[in-house]
Amino acid sequence: MIIAIDGPAGSGKSTVARQVAAKLRFRYIETGSMYRAVAWKARQRGIDLGDRERVAEVARGLDLEFVPRPEGQSLLVDGENASPVLKDEEVGRGAAVVAAYKEVRDIMTAKQREIGRSGNVVMDGRDIGTIVFPEADWKFFLDADPAERGRRRYLELKGKNQVVDLDVIVEQVKQRDHEDRNRPIAPLRPARDAILVDTTHLRIEEVVDEVARRIQAAPAS
Ligand code: C5P
Questions:
Q1: Report field, pTM of the whole predicted structure over 0.85
Q2: Would you tell me which of 4, 33, 114, 127 could form a disulfide with 136, CB atoms 3.0–4.6 Å apart?
């Protein structure tokens, strides 16, 4: 079974996807971290993210491996645990730049399909229900008010002891969404058959219960 959970930054999709996967004993794959890894690695090598050719070359040569850990999941990038640095908002903004390149998307989409081949996976991202697995058994699209999404990102980053300004984070989150929704390839949008969940006024546990309840209550179509 493949469960696709898409949505913008701060919609709660990663937390929900991780908890739903744990509940069902499925694997959890956070595809945003793959685009973040490309941006991070390219910057590490001093490559300008506007240099499409060289960024694509980085994506092609990247060794990505998801490793389940008790505290969550780590992404090994060329053998190095990059998860802590990948969460930076700066890296997220870089990810949105490289994610707009077709060459990069083709490579990541192929990797994601390969991971999904063995089944029983919850995958979150922007285009999982529309492009990566249009035949997914379940598709959810989580969304929330931009101000609330910015507030969640702010609290998450603050919790990691980063010095952040709420207004700046809200603006950055809005900007990244605008780019994701308006890019020509694989834009952020719900699949026609996705179940829409507005998480603005919901607690994470309520969203997890709602998603798990639907999956467990009905046979997948
Ligand atoms: O989900 P996360 O915030 O980590 O994603 C970072 C960026 O990666 C997004 O803003 C988006 O540009 C890109 N992304 C994407 N397709 C996905 C997952 C993430 O384009 N499936």
A1: yes
A2: 4
